[in-house]
């Protein structure tokens, strides 16, 4: 008696996926009120994109939903395709092999992106025409600035999960960027992380006021026992057995 085994062929996703589930727009807007560092800390020190990716102008900031695209190094074909398919409020994340010596995005494409209502363009490669980008006002974050030209040759995936700046990013995740960097938040965690970020920034504001009132880093950060346990020494230990740490509040 013979048996027949049916093998199903592996399915390859299309180059371009347009049907993605995006994080709630109101939750993303709320999340965008907080700093990238606060968001990173609030969600358990997760989601920080590689620190070399910075805005071309320190005043730029954004919040939106991830629209992922993979480009071959020194090739911006799929970036141009992504601009075509992206929706208002999307953040185009471009993984291009961290190729610094490549001007993959400049003022012409920036105007195309801004006209579509794209929230930001973030690439691990290079950009150019930075003076024009600053004047245009579209948030652009990049791994470098380079005048080197690119080609339009290689197809790649749009809106597939990808590793970007050391983080796994899913299409539709929330992305926030400011002068300090870029952070990604899972689509279904945005509202919760926004609330945690609010609480963290309120707590930090309280700490600042306490410092202004004369409190010290030792007592507000609860470092008395930590430092003693680690065996801290000072040059005044002979006259102050508490090492100059002061009394606990």
Q: How would you characterize this protein structure?
A:
This protein is elongated. Helix 5 (130-136) links the parallel strand 4 and strand 5 (140-145). The chain has helices at 25-31, 36-42, 77-85, 107-115, 130-136, 190-212, 217-220, 224-229, and strands at residues 54-55, 62-70, 90-95, 120-127, 140-145, 162-164, 167-169, 174-178, 181-185. By secondary structure, the protein is of the alpha/beta class.
Short description:
The protein has 249 residues and is α/β, with parallel strands linked by helices.
Beta-strand content bin: 15-25%
Distance from N terminus to C terminus (CA atoms, Å) equals 84 Å
The whole-number mean of residue pLDDT values reads 94
Give the strand order of the largest sheet, numbering strands 1, 2, ... along the chain.
1-5-4-3-2-8-9
The computed structural class is alpha/beta
Count of runs of 4 or more consecutive helical residues: 8
Low-confidence stretches: none
Helical content class: 25-40%
Query: Looking at the structure, what is the overall shape?
Result: elongated
* Rg estimate, integer Å: 24 Å
Characterize the biggest β-sheet.
7 strands, mixed
H/E element order = HHEEHEHEHEEEEEHHH
Keywords summarizing the entry:
249 residues, alpha/beta, 9 strands
Topology:
Blueprint (H helix, E strand, L loop, with lengths): L24 H7 L4 H7 L11 E2 L6 E9 L6 H9 L4 E6 L11 H9 L4 E8 L2 H7 L3 E6 L16 E3 L2 E3 L4 E5 L2 E5 L4 H23 L4 H4 L3 H6 L20
Parallel strand pairs: 2-3, 3-4, 4-5
Antiparallel strand pairs: 1-5, 2-8, 6-7, 8-9
């Amino acid at each position: 008696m013979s048996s027949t085994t049916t093998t199903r062929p592996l399915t390859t996703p299309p180059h371009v996926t347009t049907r993605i589930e995006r994080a709630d727009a109101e939750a993303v807007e709320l999340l965008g009120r907080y700093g990238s560092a606060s968001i990173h800390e609030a969600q358990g020190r997760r989601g920080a994109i590689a620190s070399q990716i910075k805005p071309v102008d320190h005043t730029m900031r954004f919040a939106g939903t991830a629209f992922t695209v993979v480009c071959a190094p020194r090739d911006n074909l799929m970036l141009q395709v992504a601009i075509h398919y992206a929706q208002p409020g999307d953040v185009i994340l471009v993984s291009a092999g961290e190729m610094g010596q490549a001007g993959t995005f400049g003022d012409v494409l920036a105007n195309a992106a801004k006209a579509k209502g794209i929230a930001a363009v973030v690439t691990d490669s290079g950009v150019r025409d930075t003076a024009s980008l600053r004047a245009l006002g579209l948030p652009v974050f990049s791994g470098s600035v380079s005048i080197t030209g690119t080609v339009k040759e290689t197809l790649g995936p749009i809106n597939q999960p990808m590793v970007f700046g050391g983080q796994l990013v899913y299409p539709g995740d929330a992305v926030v960027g400011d002068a300090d960097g870029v952070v990604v938040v899972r689509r279904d965690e945005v509202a919760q992380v926004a609330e945690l970020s609010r609480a963290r920034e309120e707590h930090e504001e309280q700490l600042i006021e306490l410092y202004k009132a004369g409190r010290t880093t030792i007592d507000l950060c609860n470092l008395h026992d930590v430092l003693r346990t680690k065996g801290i020494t000072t040059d005044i230990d002979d006259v102050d057995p508490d090492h100059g740490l002061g009394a606990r509040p």
